[in-house]
């Protein structure tokens, strides 16, 4: 995840004394402003400023997947290959690459899809894990995001080994719940203050009324910072075993293998307990159960369904025995016979950093990752928004400047196939189309 460097940024042997750290990361955005703010911000020392890619004109991808994928993908193909090589070549044993990108705009969806395909071609043995952010229909200000999301997702289904999506709507709901909980905890019987009234207006969506542009920008920045903190906490849990010690380690390549029983179904959902700002579980079993609760899921509509594969990450003051007691929560989930024992467990002795220093919080956290047929709910909503535009050919001409109409239709069908495939799995008890359950081993009724 990081490499050791001296004061001048020169790489040091892994066994040497740590003087500084640089993330093994490539930063990509076709708008210079975004990267410049990162490279001059509070985390600037963490990133190597020679390992980033931006457009020479800095105009971005125009919220157009096709422009990011085709135009910029072709233009910067060799540059992307070079950046990937520079990051991977010093590694003794690279396991996986984690991609963090948005699907609503043009660069994250289009060039992000292309970059994953470049890695697939150049380094096929390295696992590719995508952590995309899905746009929220309620607050999305990009009218073409349904096209971008479906085009990107259709490519991720074929080029990524595992897709771990975040949903802006769920992230916003989690942070709003945390704010409401803190308000309730702090109010008591005292007289409401101006700040209390401001928080109430914020909860009702009225806070921006009468504000100047800088004030609105500051409030929006704070909201996105809180949402990003939840996503970052989840990814920190996923990668904790690669950075800290523990009883049972899980590498990213293991996660991709264990959570994808069928190649065409490679989308999994995550849940956390506790979530930042959320209530503290009273015990480890209750924390495990809470990690699968709908209120703690990081994508909308992904709860329930047929559980085909599951991973549970435990961090902090817990052990294999205490976590095993908590896994009884899985017994109430519909499960095909072949997946009854299909739970991958990871244990890291270091608790999540955001729990440290808070004596009222437990010293442990749980992250669940599940591949269930309920994933179709999230994907179906994305496809429905796409179909609403595509059937009327609205905004389609922007994409036809870079790709043909057939590619757009094929992407929509690919995503629809995923939705229908998950529905078929649920009906058949966990067997994809073309597999005879009886011939495959007498799949009994679902284990409950």
Automatic annotation (TrEMBL):
The Tubulin/FtsZ GTPase domain sits at 17-246
* A GO molecular function held by the record: GTP binding
Biased composition, class Basic and acidic residues, residue ranges: 193-207
The species this protein was found in: Kipferlia bialata
User: In which domain of life is the source organism classified?
Assistant: Eukaryota
Provide the residue span(s) of the region labelled Disordered: 182-215
Read off the PANTHER family from this record. TUBULIN
**Keyword GTP-binding in record:** yes
| Protein's recorded name | Epsilon tubulin
GO terms (BP aspect): microtubule-based process
List cellular component terms (GO): microtubule
- Write down the PROSITE patterns for this protein, in alphabetical order: TUBULIN
Protein family: Belongs to the tubulin family.
**Nucleotide-binding listed as a keyword:** yes
Listed A to Z, the keywords are: GTP-binding, Microtubule, Nucleotide-binding
